[in-house]
Amino acid sequence: MGVHILVNKEDGYQCLYCSVSMWAFGPIFYQEEDADEFLDWLKPTDPRSLTDKELENKVYEWRKIINNEICPNCKCKNINTNGGDCWCAECGHKWEV
Ligand SMILES: [Zn+2]
User: Fold this and answer.
1) Most buried among 25, 26, 63, 71, by the most CB within 10 A?
2) Residue 24: beta bridge partners?
């Protein structure tokens, strides 16, 4: 995949760029976020195939998942947290935090 990550050495902010067209695009990821993790989560979708608005919505959804606001499986908000574990009351999905 020709999508790579640029990192600002000073503040750790990251952004995506295409190494074929040498064009940066999409959101700015904060230092505590991992843009690589976002790309993994987005697979098999190529972020270059999305419109700005679609990519924005995906990042918004991903941030809700990494912040444990919605279930990564069914995307509901019916989440129970118990120590290092999360459990979805809607679909029964379990995951570690
Ligand atoms: Zn669920």
Assistant:
1) 71
2) 17
